[in-house]
Specification:
In chain A, about 35% of the residues lie in helices and about 15% in strands. Chain A has 10 helices and 16 strands. In chain A, β7 (about 100-105), α2 and β8 form a beta-alpha-beta unit. The relative contact order of chain A is 0.16. Chain B has 3 domains: about 10-105, Translation factors (Elongation Factor Tu (Ef-tu), domain 3), CATH 2.40.30; about 110-230, Nucleotide-binding domain of ferredoxin-NADP reductase (FNR) module (Rossmann fold); about 230-290, no CATH class. In chain B, α4 links the parallel β9 (about 145-150) and β10 (about 170-175). In chain B, α3 runs parallel beside α4. Chain B starts with 9 loop residues before the first strand and ends in a 22-residue tail after the last strand. Classes of the chains: A alpha/beta (about 325), B alpha/beta (about 290). Chains A and B meet through β6 and α7 of A and loops of B.
């Protein structure tokens, strides 16, 4: 028996990962709460909840409503502020041996820059710049809805951040042309792109006859948004084929993850599925490896963007694979 | 308070051993040695609903009672389900021999006094469930215990027979007078506190009841430890949806997670009037 071993290592710019499965920002806190369920160092990486300069209480409750194959959340970036985050959370992640992606969020460009500077010498593998959180008071704060605002933040963060740490721009699907935004952040110096953030949604409570969430609107996540996320990864891979993508949006199984890889993602984040199954990220590593092997891929890297190839190009790849002696 | 290191939650597949109808509720007994092993009264279990390809992503949380740690037989847990929506309706269609995906035990348990102290336990509806194992622990410590069990109507009472078996002294109230005395659980509470010389009140039930119980305890200058029922998405502390405004020892109020920093809180620390708002003096409110 024995399925052929697939090399599932990957990279996000200069960040090398032994496997392509990470948590998603806002769905794993800073990793510690998942440690009773698995060793966080076994994941491709932990993506921490977006941190801001100052402590932030976030929005009022109710903050969550279940929706078909998904959920709507309105947390509003509750967090302890960057100093406490460095002292407690980042320290714990470092001691745990976890590869770490730090997500930052700011009210304005200056705050993003201050965060990049404050985190300059901290132990981390990648900086994710969250310019797309939907749960902010002013929708004008969603920088990723506007190419000029997005460019300003990303170029400023790229200048301020440690040059050895790649920066990824996190994009929202709630735009007319996500490829246009992707090209803008690429030109501004983003080393890669994380996508997608949640979609803005609303649920009405039929008992109170009012919006179900304290924040009125919220971010939709879960398998319900997977086709939208895949479409975005597909379009952004075409728009900026040279940039690595961290794909996410409703991934629950290895099959789901493989679709993102084939659409052009170099790695994936597992978000809302963690609420359903805390061990989902670890399970998905094994499932993805099996799915790749079952289709004749010898490495994950070969599968990245594979769905963009013509059927002839795909056939040529598999012909070359079978020509290689088994056990190579 | 004990300083034992809790074993922490586990995820396990448990087989349903028994399903029993109790009034408007259904009691499940499930073989779950991992959850049973670490259990302390006040903790809960989060259960996946709808099967493998479910469209309901969020686990449903239930307070645990009737926990039998493994010995001659594998450990079992009990919890009670009331029909509320698609998820609980799916659970109510499960039968003996079916399996459930469980995560637990979760949450901070009821703090226990170092020595025996007289205590009044107050349960509203199925909120009585976590008080049953608590009563057993308190009685084993030699504490004098009385219990008040209430509900809107007789069919929504839970656990009054078990409570009578464990404690003996149980007062029943219903809003409509269909069982016990007509009225709320807070009506007989002051006399119970005074009769017993109670030094602590423990409660679980709807938020309004917990707030009222906290006020009665406060008027008698004794603490009330209450287990809240906030809606949770994950139950393990990663999603930040189940927060309540809670005042800490330094007087600073924060949004804290009911799942990992609760569900048991000192009622005097919860800012009941501010639940559902962001009070201006809340830690981090100026960072929004």
């Amino acid at each position: 028996m024995g399925t052929p071993t697939v090399d599932i290592s990957t990279s996000l710019a200069s960040f090398e990962l032994p496997n392509p499965v990470l948590t998603a920002s806002g769905c794993a806190a800073a990793g510690r709460e998942l440690s009773p369920f698995f060793d966080v160092a076994e994941l491709g990486g932990i993506v921490t909840k977006s941190i801001m300069m100052k402590p932030r209480s976030g929005r009022s409750t109710p903050r969550m409503a279940e929706t078909p194959s998904g959920m709507l959340n309105s947390i509003g970036l509750q967090g302890p502020g960057v100093d406490s985050f460095i002292e407690h959370d980042l320290k714990w992640l470092h001691e745990s041996g976890a590869r770490t992606v730090v997500s930052i969020a700011g009210h304005n460009t200056d705050e993003f820059v201050a965060l990049a500077r404050r985190l300059y010498d901290q132990p981390m593998d990648l900086l994710e710049v969250n310019i797309s959180c939907p749960n902010v008071e002013n929708r004008g704060q969603v920088f990723a809805c506007d190419a000029i605002a997005a460019t300003r933040v990303i170029s400023a963060v790229r200048r301020a951040a440690n040059p050895n740490v790649p920066i990824f721009a996190k994009l929202t699907p709630d735009v007319t042309d996500i490829g246009y935004i992707a090209r803008a952040v690429a030109e501004a110096g983003a080393d890669g792109i994380s996508l997608i953030n949640t979609l803005l949604g609303l649920v009405i409570d039929l008992d109170t006859l009012r919006p179900a969430l304290g924040g009125v609107t919220g971010g939709l996540s879960g398998p319900a948004i997977r086709p939208v996320a895949l479409r975005c990864v597909w379009q952004v891979h075409q728009a900026v084929p040279h940039l690595p993508l961290l794909g996410m949006g409703g991934i629950k199984t290895g099959k789901d993850a493989l679709q993102f890889i084939l659409a052009g993602a170099s790695a994936v984040s597992v978000g809302t599925a963690v609420f359903h199954d805390p061990t989902a990220p670890i399970r998905i590593i094994a499932e993805l490896s099996d799915e790749l092997a079952a289709r004749g891929f010898s490495s994950l890297r070969d599968a990245i963007g594979f769905a963009h190839l013509s059927s002839e190009q795909q056939a040529a790849y598999f012909a070359a694979q079978t020509a290689v002696p088994v056990g190579r | 308070m004990t300083s034992d290191v809790l074993p922490g939650p586990v995820q396990e597949t448990g087989e349903i051993f028994d399903v029993t109808r109790l009034g408007e509720y259904t009691q499940f007994t499930v073989v779950a040695p991992g959850v049973a092993r670490g259990f302390k009264p006040g903790q809960f279990v989060a259960i996946a609903v709808g099967g493998r390809d479910t469209s309901m992503l969020l686990r449903r949380s239930f307070a645990l009672y009737g926990v039998q740690p493994g010995a001659e037989f594998a450990g079992t847990i009990q919890f009670v389900v009331a029909a509320k929506g698609g998820g609980t309706e799916w659970l109510l269609r499960r039968q003996i021999g079916d399996t459930l995906d469980l995560v637990g035990p979760l949450g901070v348990p009821f703090p226990l006094p170092r020595a025996s102290v007289p205590a009044v336990l107050v349960g509203g509806g199925y909120g009585t469930a976590p008080l049953l194992p608590l009563a057993q622990v308190l009685l084993a410590q030699g504490s004098d215990v009385e219990m008040i069990v209430g509900a809107a109507t007789a069919s929504r009472l839970f656990g009054e027979m078990q409570a009578k078996r464990i404690i003996g002294k149980v007062t029943v109230t219903t809003d409509d007078g269909t069982a016990g005395q007509r009225g709320w659980v807070t009506d007989p509470l002051p006399s119970a506190i005074e009769r017993l010389g109670a030094e602590i009140v423990y409660a679980c039930g709807p938020m309004g009841m917990l707030r009222a119980v906290g006020e009665v305890a406060g008027a008698h200058a004794i603490p009330a430890q209450v287990a809240v029922e906030e809606s949770m998405a994950c139950g393990i502390g990663v999603c930040m949806t189940c927060v309540l405004p809670v005042r800490d020892g330094d007087g600073v109020s924060r949004f804290v997670r009911s799942c990992v920093e609760g569900p048991v809180f000192d009622a005097g620390r919860i800012r009941w009037a501010d639940v559902g708002t962001v009070p201006a003096d809340l830690f981090g409110a100026d960072g929004n």
